[in-house]
What does this fold into?
Amino acid sequence: MKSTIAVSLATIGVVLLVATTLLDMPRSRDIQAGGQSQQAGPTVSPSASASTSAASPAGTVTTFENATLGYRIDLPEPYRLVQSRVLAPSEEFVGNAIYTKRTLAEDVQTCLTERGGSALRSPARALDVLIAATRDTRRVPAVQLAAERKMPFTSVRPMTINGLEAAKIVHQSTGDADVFLIRANDRIYEITPVLAIQPSWLGTGWLESVATSFVAIPPQEAAGPSRNGGCRI
It folds into this structure.
């Protein structure tokens, strides 16, 4: 009886996860990666341009577009959209999207391991990329928003990403950044792993290569609150 329930739940998870792949419009091309850092704090360091990040080996990437949240971004293959969420227009939090390297079957197993989304996150989430959008109601610089997080043993560095004001939070121990804040479309976009681990399993600068590919596009009005994918088993 228990095994029958587990199979049914896994089947439901697969159906829900398949639906999310229809939400983004991917197209492949080549790109290079980058990253760097230092100090105790958080403190604010001199400005750094996204175009000057250190290079790493090139690989094939897929460009994902989220018309509702208002962005395009490049992720190395085999990343795919696994969850997309939009809240009511009255909410300060607009919505988010999560991308993963796991296959459908692997993601269902991760959900089962987490018992349907408990507070105990699987270490596999360290490879997931979260992009969240919040309304820019305070109108303060991105570097100030980053500094207000008061993350220990980090420094905050202002930067520009494709002409947009941005900031990153850099870990002094590794010189790596795992939080990027970008101002665009009267919103604050945050790019970060779902589960932050230092040093990163993907190497220094992997997330910076993703963040610096961010392009803002005019957001489309959402029909209403929605959620597609994610653990619901």
The first helix runs from residue 2 to 20. The helical segments are 2-20, 104-113, 142-147, 206-211. Residues 2-229 form one domain.
